[in-house]
Design a protein that fits this description.
Elements lengths: L3 H8 L3 H6 L5 H14 L4 H10 L1 H57 L6 H22 L6 H66 L15 H14 L13 E2 L2 E2 H7 L9 H12 L3 H13 L11 H12 L1 H12 L9 H9 L2 H17 L4 H23 L1
Antiparallel strand pairs: 1-2
Helix pairs in contact: 1-3, 3-5, 4-5, 5-7, 6-7, 8-12, 12-13, 12-16, 13-15, 15-16
Amino acid sequence: MLPLIPLALSIVPELIKMIAGDKAGAVATTVANVVQEVTGTPDAAEAQRKLAADPALAAQLRVRLAEIALETQKAMDLAAEQQRQAELAAIQKALENTQGARSTMVDLVKSGSAIAWGAPLVSAIVTAGFFIFLIVLIHTDLANNTTVANVINITVGALAAAFATVVNFWLGSSQGSRDKDATNRSLQEAALNLTASSADRTERAVQAIAAAGTAKQAAPAAPTGDAKFDKCLAVVLESEGGFSDHPRDRGGATNLGITLRTLADWQGLKLDELTAADKDKLLADLKALTRREAAEIYRANYWLPMRCGDLPAGIDLMVFDFGVNAGPRRSVKLLQRAAGVTDDGSVGPKTLAAVMAADPSAMIAEMADERLAYYRSLDNFDAFGAGWTNRTQQVSALARAMSG
């Protein structure tokens, strides 16, 4: 079943590092089993043909593989966090021991206990003994008395080790404590960062599963049952229209707003690697694209990744429509700038909180203005500018009505 692994990796590349890091091979086995189960064949070439011929089957496999990636990532994050927590606990224990010893020493001095003089007395004896024996070793001719030489050498060696301990105790303890404190803080920060990054990765993985398509079933019939999505999709499809292939359209041939490249990706194909005959077949598929399949693509590739379902009414339409027209990442960045948060192109808790707290009408107006500014910056604005302007005005008007 190993020949099925490259096929799975081409669909969900995130599995590469997970398979590589799994020495037991359990992840690879699970992935191969899922590919065989979904496609019904252990032959990689036959599986590829089935996926290319059946977009719904490809979407089902994408979801299954994304679920594996999510669960594996969770397990990896948990193991890493447990290791960090163990390291943190060890450092904290060592720090507590050092702090306890210092506190005990201070308490003995404050109470006037004679025991407090133990450490200074031992340190003085060791230091004096080390230098005395060192002087004796330097000024004594030991060539003719090997027994004495051996004794002195052993004694000096032991005293040297004891002297190093004394130096570390009196001069290095404070610095060592500070180092441990710094290490402790860094480990705490690392643990917090690990938890945060784990949450981020989990959120991205959940979005990836959502973006892979709706649950493990064939393409849904329109309407989808999601009232928000259906309402916004109707506006988008009305604006996009049917098949077109304008020479100045950067997206090339499109139908219902779906480009040839988007359809190739949806079918698990690489457009740049297709032969002329395969491109002709793909173009025929594009021309025959149904509203039902277009809705599935829009939901998986745009609505869910941009988390439009979590956005307020009206804002969801603005983000969805511009994402379809100019790309999801650009649309999300526009949303984030209007909300006053970092425009990293990913909708997370901070973005959602800022959007929920903002005035919808003001946000819609700002997003419409920035959208028009983007269009004006394009070199083909002279050809499509009027249509883009009308679309922006119509969509923003509908968005304001929906937000009210």
